[in-house]
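S1.2 Input.
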Amino acid sequence: MPEHAYLAAVRESYDTVAADYAAQVSTPAGLDPLSRAMLAAFAETVRTAGRGPLADLGCGPGYVTAHLAGLGVPAYGVDLSPRMVEVARRAHPHLRFTVGSMTALDIGDGELGAVLAYYSTHHTPPELLPVVFAEFRRVLAPGGHLMLAGWVGEDEHLRPERAYGGHPVSYGLHMLPAPRLAALLEEAGLTVTARLVQEPAAGAKRRVVTLLAERPERP
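S1.3 Output.
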């Protein structure tokens, strides 16, 4: 299957910014209390279900992957950027990180107990989100869990020229309304079980949504 064109821009951009991204992005310890609580609640849900490993899709430098592993979750990371995967492997040599795309995961049907997409789907053009969300459902075991978190907006499409240390980037940012993201997950065959919308924190510009969903036990 040919690769979607936008993926090359995302890969090249994150290969370029990988080192500065890892230095600048907050670790889970630096997140706000509510965001940390949501990650902890998701980790407990995954541990209790015991349905298999968790894949952190779009894991970046692996900070959240390592955080979840520290909470007792059998977690590993997947990222489109080979340079970002190198950074994650150096920082967390005890964990597994692989290169891969959310549009066509090298993961078997029903192999995962959980999927985490933490600020990692906003580069996907809206018309391709059904492809990504269908992959999430495919790789989840029946009864498996999903947590998706990221910025939301009113169908905004941004194209920053530079990011993370002033490096040139060529990706796009797609900010969709939270209800639309939830509806797309439902259309992909996932059941949304909770949604949290956080208003912008001091100094921030955007609202954040956290969606919890699961693959139904039966089709």
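S1.4 Remarks. The chain has one domain: 5-214.
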